[in-house]
Protein: VOC family protein
Amino acid sequence: MKLQWDHIIHYIDGLDSFEFPDQLLDIHEGGRHEQLGTFNYLSYTDLSYIEFIDVFDKERLKKSVTGEQRLSFAATLERTVYQEGWKRLCFRTDDIEALNDHFISCGLSTIGPSQMSRTKPDGQVISWQLLYIDDDRMDRELPFFIQWGEEDESRHEQLAPLFQPLRVVDITLMTQNKNQFIQNWTDWFNAKYDGNQLLIPDGPIFTLMEGDKESIEAITIAGIDHPSIEVHGATYHFQA
Structure:
């Protein structure tokens, strides 16, 4: 069972008319999550990506975020009152059932794995399974976990034309309880801790800040020489 960073979600109100400033990132139309009332655009670096998300039907979303969907990314939008910015992290695995067993062995409750899908503009249906940690004691939006319906090799072949010569090298997270945060990530996700950084293989560094809230603060993208910018509530840093 492996665990890798898959994507980060950035909520933008008015996504259908959005262009990334100075066209620093290529953005491609993703599709619609019909059952959730959301749609997305995607910016790939490799198999990992930034997901820009918006809502086409808030009433549908509100009705959908019950039961297994109460921990979904769509429910996060509702809980944060549609405030723009960074929302959630997602990690991918090659064995979501084994990951579920691991979380249960850690004393955690889970929701899933549950089957999901979306329809691309060309009519192709993309499917995946999702898993959530169900812990009411947490005061942050926890990462969630995905297993795609196709192997990485097949997805790489299909998506390679969309890849940019860029890499997300750092994701900065703020927490009110640094020690507990580190303990959770090392126990649950097998992360390694080094200084103020949490490390998961084949992904960005997760830099921890201690502060007055639980949040995703910023990402750093390598391969672009440009000053830092704030885009619809989300901070982007760049390095050449």
Q: What stands out?
A: The chain has five helices and 15 strands. The helical segments are 58-64, 73-79, 96-105, 152-159, 178-189. The radius of gyration is 17 Å. The longest strand covers residues 109-119.
